[in-house]
Specification:
Structural class: alpha/beta
Shape: globular
Largest sheet: 6 strands, parallel
Strand order of the largest sheet: 2-1-3-4-6-5
CATH topology of the largest domain: Rossmann fold
CATH architecture of the largest domain: 3-Layer(aba) Sandwich
Strand content: 5-15%
CATH superfamily of the largest domain: Thiamin diphosphate (ThDP)-binding fold, Pyr/PP domains
Oligomer: single chain
Number of helices: 22
C-alpha cells in the first residue's frame, strides 16, 4: 500500500460511528464484542471514548443504563454482535423500554451473501442462509422504542445522531440500530450530525387547582432524572415550599430521596390512606400505574393534574400556590399513618421468617452506610418490604429492578453507577452499594471481573437465604418431601466465588462482622463482595431492636 493512501480515504463505518457517538455526548461504550464490531470498539477507543468490555450482553446494557440514570443523560451506549448477541440483549432492552430510560444498542450484522440470480436454481428454500443471519431487528422490535437499519453508508453518521436524539425524546426508550458489515467496513465521507430540535415550550400548570384543595398529594417519580440536575439548594427550597403548603409527598421507589425519606412530609408508608382520602393529585415524573394501585384507591371525583416533567416548572407551580389553613391536620394525619405503617412493617413479619431477616438486614444497612450512598436493590424480599426500612435521603440515590422486576441487575447496575462516580471530583464521589439475593448474584457474578478490571469501587452485599425467597418458600408451593427445586441443596460460599473472579470477598455472619466489613469496604479500592448468611446473621445479632453502633 502506498504511503499516505489512507489519509486520502474517508473514515470507514466503524470510525464514523465512533465520531457520531462522541459528538452526540456519549462518553462510554459497553460491550461483550464479537464480529463485526471488534473494529468498532477499536475506533471508539481511538476516538477517546471509554470502552468497557463486559462478560455478558445483559451486563453490558444494564451497566450502561445505570450509568445513564446516574448521569441524568445518555452518556453510555452498548454494542453487540449478531444473533445470540441480540437475543441476549432483549431483556435489557425491555427493561429500558418499560422504565422509559434512554438507551442505544448498536448491533453489527453479517449480511447474507449476494447470490447472482443466474446461480439461483431450484427451490429457494434450499439456499443456505448466511452465518448468523437471524433477523435481530425483528426480534428486538417489540422491546424497543424504535428499530433502525442503517444500510446507506453515506448516511451512517446522521443515522447514529438521529438514534441518540430519538432515544432521549419523550417518551424515552431504547433504540436498536442494526449496521451491516459491508456498511461498517466501507469508507465514506463524514456527514455533520443532524441539528438538535429545540424542545417546545411546556404549558404552565394552574396553581388555582392546588389552592382549592384541602387534601392534596404530590407524587414524584424517577422520570424527573432526565430533565433536572437537582442541586442541594433546589431540594432544600422544595422542602421549604412543601412545608409552607403542608403538601404530603409520595414517590416511586426510584423517586424517593427527592424529598428525603425522613422528612415528615414523605409519607410513602401511608400511600393507601393518602390516595383514598385526597381531593387533588399532582403527578410529576410519575404515572398512576401499578405502583399506585392503578387508580383503584382514588375517588372518581379526585382531580388529577399532570405537571410537566421539569423540576423548575414544579417549583414555579408550588411557589405560585397559596397555603390553606386546613391542610396542617391532613399532613399530620398522613405523617402519623406513615409512622404506624413503619411500626407495623417491623412487627408483621414473624421473628425468624425470611421477611423478618431481610428487614433486619435492610435496617442495619440503613444505619451503617452513609446517607450519600448510591444504593441498588436486586432481591425480591428486599423489594417487597425491606427497602422501606432503608431510608433514601438523596435524590435519585436508589435504583431497583423497575417496571419489569428483572433479577440479576444489581451487579451490572452497581458497575455502571461506579463508573459514573469515577468521572466525578474525588471529594464528591459517593459509595455504590448493591443488595442482591443469591439468585441475582448468580445471574451476573461474572461482571465482578469487569468491575475489578475497571477499578470500580462498589460493594455487593449478598443476602444468602439458601433459595428463592428463602429455604422455606418451597414448602408453600410443593408437596412435603419434594426434592429441592427452588431451595438450594448446599451452602454456597459467595465470598469464595467472588475471590474466584479476582474480587475481595468476605463473609459477615453477625452484626458486628457486617459493620466491620462495611467499614473496610467503604475505604477499599475496587469492588468488595460481602456475603451475609441471613439465618446466622440474625441469630448472632438483633439489628432491628439493638441500636448499638456495631450491632454486637
Amino acid at each position: 500500500m502506498q504511503k499516505g493512501l489512507p489519509s486520502r480515504l474517508g473514515p470507514n463505518g466503524h470510525q464514523a460511528i465512533a465520531a457520531a457517538l462522541k459528538s452526540g455526548g456519549v462518553t462510554h461504550v459497553y460491550s461483550l464484542p464479537g464480529n463485526p464490531i471488534y473494529a468498532t470498539l477499536g475506533a471508539c477507543a481511538e476516538a477517546g471514548l471509554t470502552v468497557i468490555g463486559c462478560r455478558s450482553q445483559f451486563g453490558a446494557l444494564s451497566a450502561a443504563m445505570a450509568q445513564n440514570f446516574q448521569a441524568g443523560a445518555l452518556r453510555a451506549v452498548a454494542l453487540c454482535s449478531p444473533t445470540p448477541g441480540v437475543t441476549n440483549s432483549i431483556t435489557s432492552l425491555s427493561d429500558a423500554k418499560y422504565n422509559h430510560w434512554p438507551m442505544v444498542l448498536i448491533a453489527g450484522v453479517i449480511e447474507e451473501p449476494e447470490i447472482p440470480e443466474a446461480q439461483v436454481l431450484g427451490d429457494q428454500a434450499q439456499i443456505s442462509a448466511g452465518f448468523q443471519s437471524f433477523d435481530g431487528a425483528q426480534a428486538a422490535a417489540p422491546c424497543c422504542k424504535a428499530v433502525v437499519k442503517l444500510q446507506d453508508r453515506t448516511a451512517l453518521s446522521a443515522g447514529i445522531s438521529a438514534a441518540l436524539e430519538q432515544a432521549q425524546t419523550v417518551p424515552r426508550g431504547p433504540v436498536f440500530v442494526e449496521v451491516g458489515a459491508r456498511v461498517l467496513n466501507a469508507r465514506h465521507a463524514t456527514q455533520a450530525p443532524a441539528p438538535q430540535k429545540q424542545a417546545p415550550a411546556r404549558p404552565l400548570a394552574d396553581p388555582q387547582q392546588l389552592d382549592c384543595a384541602q387534601r392534596p398529594v404530590l407524587i414524584l417519580g424517577e422520570n424527573l432524572r432526565w430533565l433536572s440536575a437537582l442541586t442541594p439548594d433546589q431540594t432544600m427550597h422544595l422542602q421549604s415550599v412543601l412545608e409552607q403548603l403542608q403538601l404530603p409527598v409520595l414517590a416511586t421507589d426510584m423517586g424517593r430521596g427527592i424529598v428525603p425519606d425522613l422528612h415528615r412530609l414523605s409519607v410513602f408508608m401511608a400511600q393507601e390512606e393518602a390516595l383514598q382520602n385526597c381531593d387533588h393529585l399532582l403527578l410529576c415524573g410519575a404515572a398512576l400505574d401499578w405502583r399506585f394501585g392503578a387508580r383503584s384507591f382514588l375517588d372518581p371525583k379526585v382531580s388529577i393534574e399532570q405537571v410537566p416533567v421539569c423540576f423548575e416548572h414544579l417549583l414555579r407551580l408550588l411557589e405560585a400556590a397559596n397555603p390553606q389553613p386546613g391542610r396542617a391536620q391532613w399532613a399530620d394525619d398522613l405523617t402519623q399513618a406513615h409512622a404506624r405503617g413503619l411500626a407495623k412493617l417491623r412487627q408483621q413479619a414473624t421473628k425468624g421468617s425470611e421477611a423478618w431477616r431481610m428487614n433486619a438486614l435492610c435496617e442495619a444497612l440503613g444505619r451503617w452506610l452513609p446517607e450519600t450512598a448510591m444504593t441498588i436493590l436486586d432481591s425480591g424480599l428486599a423489594l417487597s418490604s425491606g427497602h422501606k426500612l432503608w431510608p433514601v435521603q438523596q435524590p435519585f440515590a436508589r435504583m431497583t429492578a423497575g417496571q419489569n422486576g428483572t433479577m440479576g441487575l444489581g451487579i451490572p447496575f452497581a458497575l455502571g453507577a461506579a463508573v459514573r462516580e469515577q468521572d466525578q471530583p474525588h471529594a464528591e464521589r459517593r459509595p455504590v452499594v448493591a443488595l442482591v439475593g443469591d439468585v441475582g448474584f448468580a445471574l451476573s457474578a461474572s461482571e465482578l471481573e469487569t468491575a475489578q478490571r475497571q477499578g470500580a469501587r462498589m460493594i455487593i452485599i449478598v443476602a444468602d437465604n439458601g433459595g428463592i425467597n428463602g429455604r422455606g418458600f418451597q414448602d408453600q408451593w410443593l408437596p412435603t418431601g419434594s426434592p429441592d427445586i427452588i431451595r438450594y441443596g448446599t451452602q454456597v460460599d459467595y465470598a469464595q466465588v467472588a475471590r474466584g473472579w479476582g474480587v475481595r470477598g468476605v463473609t459477615a455472619a453477625s452484626g458486628k462482622a457486617l459493620h466491620l466489613a462495611l467499614s473496610e469496604a467503604l475505604v477499599a479500592e475496587g469492588p468488595t463482595v460481602i456475603s451475609v448468611p441471613l439465618a446466622q446473621f440474625c441469630e448472632a445479632s438483633k439489628p432491628v431492636t439493638d441500636r448499638g453502633a456495631d450491632g454486637s
